[in-house]
Design a protein that fits this description.
- The structure holds two protein chains of two kinds.
- Chain A has a single domain, classed as MetI-like fold (Orthogonal Bundle), CATH 1.10.3720.
- Chain A has eleven helices and no strands.
- The termini of chain B are far apart.
- In chain B, the strands form two sheets. In chain B, strands 6-7-8-3-9-10 form a six-stranded mixed sheet, sandwiched between helices. In chain B, strands 2-1-4-5 form a four-stranded antiparallel sheet, covered by helices on one side.
- The chains are: A mainly alpha, B alpha/beta.
Chain lengths: 246, 264
């Protein structure tokens, strides 16, 4: 019941959409009816277009995000523990932080071409920032009594990083990853829209330019639902990983 | 006391130099010898450097001036020969009671069946059977500290460093834990350095009490406590009350001084 109420606004929006389109309150090419969008979605699935392009996109996003988590997480924790590294890297992070990462789309293409490499690099660079910052702040906040306890029980410095610093920083790292997850979708679709021969963004651009607006809307909705689903799934994962907290 | 000292602290100084805030001289020319299986209390007002001294023996802070040796070897880093118990437990919040107690055993490289058995023995010993899979956030203060003590005892350090271990507990739990600690100490005699600012606690637990002066910390006096700890009426006995008074008189001046320095 509660779930029903929570999703009621979405249902109303869908209804409003359908009615607006059916009554031709706006130009039908600007807003095709939701049912025709649904039909276009089924067609796109049937001829494999959505599946193929979706797979390409998900591969890029997953690879970029995974790299960002590993490198950003490691870098952030190392910065928190090694003063020299902090002094050296922190200004770079601060400089890079406010830069709109989409401005790097042409740059990454210049370096790595039009294929997967440039998308993965862009997503990696953009997503690394929130993960690095989360890991850095989380690791700096770790309790020295925990570090000392682990050291006195025989953990070496590296072992202690993995056993104490990483789990101490985990809540903030996970928050950083959540931000990165949303950013990955943004960067993915915008880079594919501009320079790509495959992917969700490409498909949206292609269908839009050929006047297949039902199909275009179908892909946009698919990306929105995927993003929503990924975030919900991620929140459940977070709860599970942090169940040791009250 | 007969025999070689196990822990030797010689002319140790320590100054905190935080990157922000003022420099604090915590210890000035402190010397102390502790013999094997001795229970020594470090007693003094807050801010007298007693915890600093404990951390130096633990190898958590670098020795700047002076010398600290444990069993003849200079202390350069923390090690499993010196287990520590902190006031705020320092349990790994992401590990269960069992996971916390297993941690040190894993680091010591004990084979799995042996670690499991040893962990369970210590869980039973501190009366936490049934709470093996609980996380620290689900435990009371007393249970947390029992877990922390079991975790440290389980990997069998020769020396137990205790940093106001019962300071965060309520009065009843504290008194029960004191009795429990004494009985554990009687069963598995280890060397204990016990930091506290509670005179009664020091007299009740320790064989010797080192009274520290206010900042910068120095050892003002070392008092032998020769009391029969197994006497159930000990806390009300004349000898106990006299010892407590004697030490309280030594501490009081320092406590007043310490209060004065807070405001300067």
């Amino acid at each position: 019941m509660q779930t029903a109420i929570r999703y009621l606004p979405l249902l109303l929006l869908a209804l409003g959409w359908e009615v607006t389109a059916r009554l031709h309150l706006v130009d039908s090419s600007a807003l095709p009816s939701l049912t025709s969008v649904g039909a276009a979605w089924v067609d796109l699935i049937r001829d494999g277009e959505l599946i193929d392009n979706g797979a390409a996109s998900i591969y890029r996003a997953a690879a970029g995000l995974a790299l960002a988590i590993v490198v950003g997480g490691g870098l952030g924790m190392a910065m928190a523990r090694v003063k020299l590294l902090d002094l050296f890297v922190n200004p770079l992070v601060e400089l890079f932080y406010p830069l709109p990462k989409s401005a790097l789309i042409p740059v990454t293409v210049l370096w790595l071409g039009f294929g997967n490499g440039s998308k993965i690099l862009l997503i990696f660079l953009g997503c690394m920032i929130p993960v690095t910052i989360g890991a850095y702040n989380g690791a700096r906040g770790s309790d020295h009594a925990l570090i000392w306890s682990a050291r006195s029980m025989g953990a070496g410095r590296l072992r202690m990083m993995w056993d104490v610093i990483m789990p101490s920083a985990l809540p903030e790292i996970l928050n950083g990853i959540r931000t990165a997850l949303a950013l990955a979708f943004i960067l993915l679709v915008s880079s594919e829209l501009i320079v790509s021969q495959s992917g969700f963004g490409y498909l949206i651009g292609y269908l839009g330019s050929t006047g297949a607006y039902e199909g275009m809307y179908a892909v946009v909705l698919t990306v929105a639902l995927l993003g929503f689903g990924a975030d919900r799934f991620y929140q459940l994962l977070m709860q599970r990983l942090l169940r040791w907290r009250e | 006391m007969a025999g070689e000292a196990q822990i030797v602290v010689q002319g140790v100084n320590h100054t905190y130099r935080p990157s922000h805030g003022r420099v604090v001289k915590a210890l000035s020319d402190v010397s102390l010898e502790v013999h094997p299986r001795e229970f020594v209390a470090l007693l003094g007002p807050s801010g007298c450097g007693k915890s600093t001294l404990l951390y130096l023996v633990g190898g958590f802070l670098p020795t700047e001036r002076g010398r600290i040796t444990v069993e003849g070897k200079p202390v350069v880093a923390p090690g499993p020969d010196r287990g520590i118990v902190f006031q705020h437990f320092a349990l790994f919040p992401w590990k269960t009671v069992r996971g916390n107690i297993l941690y040190g055993l894993e680091r010591q490289g004990l084979p799995r069946p042996e670690r499991e058995k040893r962990a369970q023995d210590f869980i039973n010993m501190v009366g936490l059977r049934g709470f093996e899979e609980s996380y620290p956030s689900q435990l009371s203060g007393g249970m947390k500290q029992r877990t922390a003590i079991a975790r440290t005892l389980a990997f069998d350090p020769n020396i137990l460093l205790m940093d106001e271990p019962f300071g965060a507990l309520d009065a009843q739990t504290r008194s029960l834990m004191q009795t429990e600690l004494l009985s554990i100490w009687n069963r598995t005699p280890k060397t204990v350095i016990f930091v506290t600012h509670d005179v009664q606690e020091a007299v009740y637990l320790a064989g010797r009490v080192a009274v520290m002066s206010a900042r910068p910390g120095k050892i003002k006096a070392i008092v032998d406590i020769k009391l029969d700890k197994s006497d159930p009426g000990l806390l009300r006995s004349k000898e106990f009350v006299e010892k407590t008074d004697e030490i309280w008189n030594l501490v009081r001046d320092e406590a007043i001084k310490a209060q004065g320095t807070v405001t300067t």
